[in-house]
Amino acid sequence: MSGSAHHIRRRFGVALAVLLLVACSSEQSGAPLDDLTAQEIFARGEQQIEDGRPDDAAFTFGEIERLYPYSEFAERALIMQAFAYHRAEDYPNSRASAQRYLDFYPAEDDAAYAAYLLALSYYDQIDEVGRDQGLTFQALQSLRQVIEVYPDSEYARTSVLKFDLAFDHLAAKEMEIGRYYLKRGQYAAAANRFRTVVEDFQTTTHTAEALHRLVECYLSLGLVDEAQSAGAILGFNYRSSEWYEASFILLTGEGLNPNATGDNWLASIYRQVVRGEWL
Fold first, then answer.
1. How many structural domains does the chain have?
2. Under 8 Å CB-to-CB from 164, ≥6 apart: which residues?
């Protein structure tokens, strides 16, 4: 079981050896859940997770709420049900259980973990840049909730790291679409995507390439001032990068220099960069 599950166990104050002993005896006896105490049902759910049966465990933990709704184990079982569903990769049900925990027990110690599990139910489905980005937006919103509402919890730092990765994922999607348009000679559409990365995702790893692609797009469109301004920003912030070298070659090959000129959005950004107000 993961460290989070062990953390929950410690918080419950129930000795693992005792729980497993109770679970094994109840499993071996085949006793129906209706005949077991709340503690015995909880122990059976724990054993099912240990045995790699998270789906069964999620059902078992749910039965505690049905049979013993007012017991001390009802709260514990709900957060463990959310964990079991997540272990089973049943993300909608994990999210639903976590949200119910937050609705019923917002002030309890495990509320932060419930919020984190809810965020993970979105985040763990972000696996490919080409997929719909709705899940990424939802993951960002949920991770921000953990960071802002539970800043002192052990899950806040991890949420910050995952937030940055999800944010980078959105920028990667914009870059992918921009490259698609660029390869097909749709320079204006491509430039719009790269501009989004520069303006909205400037803290990600994709900014340098986005600026270089803007140089390519604007040169192709004959927008010389914009191309030079993009090159100037690239040189100011990423002079040692391969992207600046490529842009410098493109610009000088056209008899141009990476200087901010004209009155355009990139020249305005460059002036802010020089004053230390951007990036």
1. 2
2. none
For residue 242, being part of any structural domain is answered with: yes
Choosing from 62, 90, 118, the residue where a domain stops is 90
Instruction: Express each pLDDT in 168-218 by its tens digit.
Output: 999 999 999 999 999 999 999 999 999 999 999 989 999 999 999 999 999
Domain span including residue 12: 1-90
The residue to which tokens 């679970």 are assigned: 23
pLDDT at 164: 94
Domain boundary residue, one of 58, 75, 90: 90
| CA dist list (Å): 238 to 28, 32, 81, 82, 228 | 65, 66, 48, 44, 15
Instruction: Please write the tens of the pLDDT for every residue from 231-243.
Output: 999 999 999 999 9
Which is nearest to 177 in space by CA: 128, 130, 226?
Answer: 130
What is the 8-class DSSP label of residue 69?
A: T
Percent share of the chain, pLDDT over 90? 74
Residue 194 neighbours by CB under 8 Å, 6+ apart = 174, 175, 178, 210, 211, 213, 214, 217
Q: Is the pTM of this model over 0.85?
A: no
Taking the C-alpha atoms of 270, 178, 208 and 159 in order, what is their torsion angle to the nearest 10 degrees? 110
Q: How far is CA 172 from CA 119, 167, 186, 229, in A?
A: 20, 9, 19, 23
Cβ atoms of 61 and 38 within 8 Å: the answer is no
Give the Cα-Cα-Cα angle 165, 170, 174 (nearest 5 degrees): 140
